[in-house]
Structure formats: C-alpha cells, structure tokens
C-alpha cells in the first residue's frame, strides 16, 4: 500500500502481525482518488484478546471495500493464504491476487508458471506479479485498479495521504522500530502509547511516548546496554516521524511494565485497540 500511494503510512517489518490496525492510504491524482485499506493478517491462533481483535479488524475490512487485493509471497502459497482466501472469497467483492516479492523469485521466467499454479485456487479477477520493494509493476497494478473503481465524489482533500492522526502515526513509527530492532527477542507484547504530542511555537513537535511491555526482562532488552537500544529505537523513529510530518521532532520515551497487558482489555483500549468487545 505504501508503494502504491507513494507515501509511508503503514509500518512494515519481517515479523508477522506487524500491522495491527485498519490503515487507510489515500492516493489522489488529477483523474481519481483511490483509498486503500491495509489490514492485519488473519491468524488461526486467536488465543489472546489481541489476536481476536486483529482477526476481527481484518475480516470487517473485507466487507467494506470495492475490491480486495490479496497479497501473497510469490515464492510460496501457505495454509494461512488458504484461510484468508476463504474469507475474501465469501464476500461480494472481486478478489485479485498480488504475487509480491518477485525480486526474490530469482529468475523472471518463473513468474508465468507461478501465475498458472495459483490460478487454480480461485477465480481471481486479476493476478498481478510485482515487487513492493523495487516498485516493479506497481504502476501496472495502479492502472488496473483505477480502471475498475466505481465513480463517486472524492472524500478527502488531495494532499491528504491517510485518515490516521499524526499521534497514531508517531506511535506506529516507534512500534515499527521496536519490531525491527528487538522483534526476535520480544515477540508481541509491546505497545506504544503517546502520552503527549504538542507543537511548540518555533514549529518543533515534542512527543512523549510510553512503551509498554510484559516484564522486567523485556524492559532491559528494550533499553539495551547503557540504553543504547532505546536510543536507536528513538532516533530511527524520530527520523521517520520527521519525514512524515515535515517538521523537526523531539522524542522522549519511557518503558512501562505491565504483566498480561495483551490480554487486558482496558489496556488494549488505551493503546488503540478499541474494537475489543
Ligand atoms: N524482497 C522483498 N521484500 C519485501 C517485499 N515486500 C515486502 N517485503 C518485506 O517483507 C516483510 C514483510 O512485509 P510487511 O509489509 O510487513 O508484510 P505484511 O504482509 O503487511 O505483514 P503483517 O503486517 O505482519 O501482517 C518486510 O520485511 C518487507 O520489507 C518485496 O517486494 N520484496
Ligand atoms: Mg502489514
């Protein structure tokens, strides 16, 4: 979605379950405005409260769009993909299959056989191979999508790239760095809560963020030796937030420990997972 709209509004990492919210990315040109909706994946292990929320967020988004772009890794089809296809196929919308990461296929002549293989799985409206990383074939997908969108008035000012608030984006960019830098050591028990966000008279944006984790061990992993890891998380996130806002940012972070927060509905609501009931 970031590649399609030409702006980074949805965070990414190697770890599964990076996307935890329904995130809109808006693309406006002279001819059209298209609103893309990025969703969490659908996960079978819906044990803790958060996983149930993620699945619900993903499934409800499926029913409110004109077209579903199901993105899979071009190299392999997984049982998880089959589950998602069951849900996508049960909607009224047309489902297109996006074979992503073709840059990792190795040989260009492997693309057509892959398309032939996946074609048997469902009556996809289109099957589009591309690479979100290199941008290869993204413009082709955009042209195809623009060609089938229903006509209607545009809902957003042309310069707007998402309906997410700046506060939400700031929290997400911090969470992205946590996932990227300590994602292997701290599975999923982190959340970011923006305590304050204010713009000073001189234009500098001052942000105070609480990073929640489950226990003291995770706390010390997040902080790192002499606080170096937390510093890296902060400086990389700050760079991203500055780029997004186009303003100078001052970022201060605190680590908070609360056991079982990912199963605590009040806490989930506090950090932005409001659809828990
Ligand atoms: N080589 C390559 N890597 C890619 C491409 N697209 C995405 N990635 C990488 O794949 C990883 C997962 O990407 P995400 O966008 O976070 O994946 P997702 O499907 O949204 O996953 P969740 O949000 O966790 O459900 C990241 O490390 C990306 O950098 C691509 O076209 N080529
Ligand atoms: Mg994602």
Automatic annotation (TrEMBL):
The keyword Nucleotide-binding applies. CDD domains: Era, KH-II_Era. PROSITE patterns: G_ERA. InterPro entries: G_ERA_dom, GTP-bd, GTPase_Era-like, KH_dom-like_a/b, KH_dom_type_2, KH_sf_prok-type, P-loop_NTPase, Small_GTP-bd. Residues 1-151 form the Era-type G domain. GO terms for biological process: ribosomal small subunit assembly. Pfam families: KH_2, MMR_HSR1. Transmembrane segments: none annotated. GO terms for cellular component: cytosol. GO terms for molecular function: GTP binding; ribosomal small subunit binding; rRNA binding. Keywords: GTP-binding, Nucleotide-binding, RNA-binding. Belongs to the TRAFAC class TrmE-Era-EngA-EngB-Septin-like GTPase superfamily. Era GTPase family. HAMAP family: GTPase_Era. This is GTP-binding protein Era. It comes from hydrothermal vent metagenome.
């Amino acid at each position: 979605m970031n590649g399609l709209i030409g702006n980074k509004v949805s965070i990414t990492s190697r770890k599964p379950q990076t996307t935890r919210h329904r995130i809109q990315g808006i693309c406006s040109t002279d001819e059209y405005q298209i609103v893309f909706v990025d969703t969490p994946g659908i996960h079978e292990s819906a044990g803790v409260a958060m996983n149930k929320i993620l699945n619900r967020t993903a499934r409800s988004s499926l029913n409110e769009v004109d077209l579903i772009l199901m993105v899979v890794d071009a190299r392999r089809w997984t049982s998880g993909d089959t589950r998602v296809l069951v849900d996508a196929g049960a909607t009224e919308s047309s489902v297109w299959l996006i074979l992503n990461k073709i840059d990792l296929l190795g040989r260009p002549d492997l693309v057509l056989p892959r398309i032939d293989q996946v074609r048997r799985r469902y009556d996809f409206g289109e099957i589009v191979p591309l690479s979100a990383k290199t941008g290869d074939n993204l413009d082709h997908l955009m042209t195809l999508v623009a060609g089938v969108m229903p006509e209607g008035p545009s809902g957003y000012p042309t310069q707007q790239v998402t309906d997410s608030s700046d506060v939400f984006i700031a929290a997400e960019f911090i969470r992205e760095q946590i996932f990227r830098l300590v994602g292997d050591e701290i599975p999923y028990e982190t959340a970011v809560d923006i305590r304050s966000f204010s713009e000073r008279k001189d234009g500098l944006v001052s942000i105070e963020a609480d990073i929640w984790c489950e226990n003291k061990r995770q706390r010390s992993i997040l902080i790192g030796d002499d606080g170096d890891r937390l510093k890296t998380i902060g400086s990389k996130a700050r760079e991203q937030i500055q780029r997004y806002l186009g303003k100078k940012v001052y970022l201060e972070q605190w680590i908070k420990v609360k056991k079982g927060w990912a199963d605590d509905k009040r806490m989930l609501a506090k950090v932005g997972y409001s659809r828990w009931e």
